[in-house]
Description:
The protein is mostly beta strands. Helices cover about 10% and strands about 30% of the residues.
Amino acid sequence: MADSCPKPATTGSNNPTPVISSxxxxxxxxxxxxxxxGERYALRITATGKLILTK
Length: 55
């Protein structure tokens, strides 16, 4: 998986969008759970190195 990432976009202010490395998020795992608005989602790395988010 590449570590390069496009330059973060800015919102209306001078604060750039934060960038978090997938290595930091996954910590060697292939799947993590993300909770958003009381719903749980699965973010996983495919065999080809792409990310898939499912509910």
